[in-house]
Amino acid sequence: MPLFSKPQNFQISGGNWTDNSVRNEVVTYVQGRLNGKVAILLNFDKPQFSSHQNPLSGIDVLLEASEPGAAHNSVARTLAPRCHPGTRERFIQELTRWAVALSEYHPLVWMKGPAGVGKSAIAQSCVEQLSAESIPYVAYFFSINGRSDPRRLFPSIAYQLSLLIPEYHAFLEEKISRDKTLSTRSLRGQLHGLIVEPLRELQKMHINTVDQRIPIFVDGLDECEDHRAQCDIVEAVAEVLRLGVLPLRFAIFSRPEAHIETTFSQSDITRAFTQIISLQISRGDDEEIERFLRSGFQEILGRRNMPKGYAWPSDKEISDLVDAADGLFNYASAALKFIDDKKWLDPREPLRLVLDSSRDPPPLTASPSPFAELDALYLLIMKNILPERLPLCKILLTFLCFKMIFFDWKGSSILFHSNLLGLSEFQYRAICGDLNSVLYIKEQPPIELPKGVDPTRSFLENDQRHAQDISLLVQECLGGTIYFHHKSFIDFLTNPSRCGTYCINTPLAYTNLFEHMLRVYPNYDHIYETSNAGEVLNLLRCLYGPSYKM
């Protein structure tokens, strides 16, 4: 409060004074004489501007523009997935060796893999290992749960680098203090203004900032909220790394989404400096999945105060779970989380539910799903399909799942499907591109007609022993073959209690498929164009005669 309230009878001369005891107020003081004594009058006013407060430092501005929760050791990632000891060791070793290698080859690594295969767990385990060995690194984990803004990526990387390199910290502090808009620029502008230019300036000043390249891990690029931004990030990073002058290297982890695949396949993002690691769903991982399950069940028993050596679950139950996982780590992880839920008094009950759901289609009820985590992942994939493509996408999935459920099918020809559904090759592959995380295309191998088959003669005039071989070529591999990454996606799509409106195992879904094919049928001979028309034409002429035209 003022030292004098409503003073009278004094002379004044002006000046300014700041009273720190009063928050967010500017104090104007006037000095004069009151009753023959020197007096100071303090007048308190709300400030019109903040020049009397300490402004944010450059690094504080950078911190505000960054995303601290995306760091590997943030509170937000306390429960982040990580690889169980003894699993995924080959990939972890490969990436950690790359991170510390003195060689300048492959400054950019892309680890790609379908949904649920364990990319984030590998990334987390890698940076934790580097941290334990006191090796400098930077890590950023995108997430749809509040960490999907692409504009926060490069400010976060710059902030983490500033904690590793004192000279860079000081330079960046001064640079941002002069221009506080650096963190508001475009993605390329941020990368150059916050990272490239400061490091180059230090190099020009002959300041040796680091002894070797610092690895930067960027996980979940496909969870960044904008497809264009995802591509821009890859292109901007590749553009900088291609110059080969910065002490940095990048490892990017994502699903093989079509637009990301296309970006990495550009001629100027070549294998000359990019290494691609493909993480596949494979039964070759059964041993690691079994080890992961056994360890997880031991932890569940420990949390339930059961004695050591308690014989549960049985070897048969473990084996059945490994078979159900079918090479997908996320399936095993989701099963353990469901079984370990505290709502179950006896964990044998949820284990039975998991095993039952793997043997038979789950009941269409509102009972808890053993795979809520996996369902959330699949729902995210379906929600990201462009609205204008969703109807055709559901028709294709209905057709594929119908064949998978009711026929002995290991894969099916793109040409065969496209003809039946009335889709061009562009349309078909665009739809499959939206589903790259759960579907994949094996491109058509070179086709050789069986010996003794004459493509210039009618199918009926050729040796009938080759009829089935030719038919299989057309139905299974012509134009490429489409596969599901994992059966769990089919289970998800065929249960409306799990997938809701995306369900393709309903009367409405089959009606839509039937009506679509009825519309296609009158124009069946005009609906497909292909780049390998010569091979296709030869095969079809074997089936339908030399006069057949596409």
TrEMBL record:
SUPFAM superfamilies named in the record: P-loop containing nucleoside triphosphate hydrolases
Span of domain Nephrocystin 3-like N-terminal: 87-255
InterPro entries the UniProt entry points to: NPHP3-like_N (IPR056884), P-loop_NTPase (IPR027417)
Signal peptide positions on this chain: none
Keyword Phosphoprotein: no
Pfam family, one: NPHP3_N
Record keywords, A-Z: Repeat
PANTHER family recorded: AMELOGENIN, NACHT DOMAIN-CONTAINING PROTEIN
Full protein name: Nephrocystin 3-like N-terminal domain-containing protein
Organism, scientific name: Leucocoprinus birnbaumii
